[in-house]
Amino acid sequence: MCAGAIDGTHIPILAPVESHVEYVNRKGFHSIIMQAVTDCNYLFRDVVIGWPGSVHDARVLSNSAIFKNGNKKHLFPARLVKEIGGVEIAPFLVGDPAYPLLPWLLKGYLRNNASEMEKRFNYNLSRARMTIENTFGRWKGRFVRFGKRVDMEVSSLVNVVHASCILHNMCELQKNNFLLDWEVVGAIEELNEPEDEIEAAQDADNIRSVLTEHFA
Q: How far is 22 from 24, CA to CA, in rounded Å?
């Protein structure tokens, strides 16, 4: 049922001449954001590149094509929908607390008041989310320049990053060797965005509850 994971990563840049303040992220350096959806094979399935570093992950998502298609139920074929506990559940993505809870995008429960069953769900969801963290690590390992400030016009950098994602996928599909030491070369600390405060839709909450009980 889990079709992939979604997350954002920051690519450091030199301060742009115009609107440079918008590109300062919460860590205090200039960056652009890459939102990505990845699968369990470390492949990029969807990327959105170029938003200024100050923008919240939830805003990047809400302005993306994957958000519009997800809300229209166009992300996955209808034949993949399954019924569990009387609730129809389509394939879904998993994300961190920065994202809204949606029927096609699940995130964990708040840790402060989570039950034991909910904590187990959070643990399993966190393990599923590791696929995108590993993908980012492998991508940055292959293209270490993105771990340092890139001196390039943002519009040009967006194209370069797009190309690197395609090349990364080619390397993974061809099973090219990847040295584990590469993962830490040039990497920057990821930014943990604050939790999204949008109230979850009832159907999304029902789906998460059913899955919590199903995998308990």
A: 6
